[in-house]
Specification:
302 residues; mainly alpha; Glutathione S-transferase Yfyf (Class Pi), Chain A, domain 2; 12 helices; 76% helix; flat; GTPase activator activity; VPS9
Length: 302
């Protein structure tokens, strides 16, 4: 009964062959029109995405250039400020040279910086009324000028002993470079991560560490190095890498980079800002220090 009713229902809408062919032709034309419109929408969407990407890149460049201009402006202001206080700066350097204990030296630098910042922010001073971020940039500029003048004293407080120790480690790492590879069994780097080896960009970021004078700037080189490693490992595996994933790759990167004065750099950063680190900065710095300690114990077996 059901089948009979279905046939009767279809029969009521039966079409002649010419009508049937005409209907199919119209449907095909409609599909073609929709297809053309769909292609137009896809091209329009692609153009929009490309334009959005260009705008984002332009905004990134603008922010970078703006930050560079702000840093340069603050540096100029601080240099002008220092030009009028050469006698005070010379007195500070003499007092610093007389100190022998590292903690006393750090306290003296912080006290001197705080005093200069108070002068910069007093009514009528060059930075009076400026926002907090500019005051922070001015502080960094002051630290950069001071630590550039005192660099040899703060970086190598024990002079030849520190240099000798750094040389020994550098030679040790040079020997490791001859036997180490991304697939070396001592590193245990998972196969999934080897596609991005030898992590040249990370090595490049770490190699910049000797070009900077302040501990904060040196730390940023370490952070950029580890962040780039994390990004590459994430691209290789599709998941967020853990500390155990990062460590063996970071060991390889440090060995292949072999930054100069590595032990002195670690102590310099730890001494001046180690206790102030928190969150992501502390995580990155802890990883890096662990890697340096491990490299010191490595042997040269294949």
């Amino acid at each position: 009964e059901w089948l009979r009713k279905r046939k009767k229902f279809v029969g009521n809408f039966a079409l002649e062959r010419s009508q049937h062919n005409q209907l199919l032709e119209e449907l095909q034309q409609d599909i073609q029109k929709r297809q053309n419109y769909l292609q137009y929408l896809m091209r329009y969407r692609q153009n929009q995405l490309l334009m959005m990407e260009n705008i984002e890149q332009f905004e990134t460049r603008l922010r970078s250039e703006s930050a560079t201009c702000n840093r340069y402006l603050m540096a100029v202001c601080v240099r002008l400020f220092f030009e009028k206080r050469q006698a005070k700066l010379a007195e500070f350097q003499e007092e610093f040279a007389r100190l022998t204990v590292s903690d006393d030296k750090i306290d003296l630098i912080e006290e001197f910086v705080e005093g200069l910042m108070e002068e910069l922010l007093t009514p009528g001073a060059i930075l009076h009324g400026m926002p907090e971020w500019q005051a922070q940039e001015a502080r960094l500029s002051i630290e950069r000028i001071l630590l550039t003048r005192l660099y040899q004293q703060v970086m190598f407080p024990n002079e030849d002993a520190d240099l000798s120790r750094d040389t020994v480690l550098s030679e040790h790492i040079s020997k490791l470079q001859r036997v180490i590879s991304p697939s070396h069994p001592a590193l245990c780097i998972p196969q999934a991560y080897l596609s991005e080896a030898p992590w040249s960009f990370s090595q490049q970021q770490l190699s910049y560490i000797s070009a900077y004078k302040t501990p904060r700037e040196k730390l940023q080189c370490v952070i950029r190095c580890i962040s780039s490693i994390m990004s590459l490992l994430h691209m290789s595996s599709g998941r967020v890498p853990a500390a155990d994933d990062i460590l063996p790759v970071l060991i390889y990167v440090v060995i292949m980079t072999n930054p100069p004065f590595l032990l002195s750099t670690v102590e310099y950063i730890t001494c001046f800002i180690g206790e102030k680190l928190e969150g992501e900065e502390q995580f990155h710095w802890t990883l890096f220090c662990s890697v340096v300690k491990f490299i010191k114990t490595m042997d040269y077996l294949d």
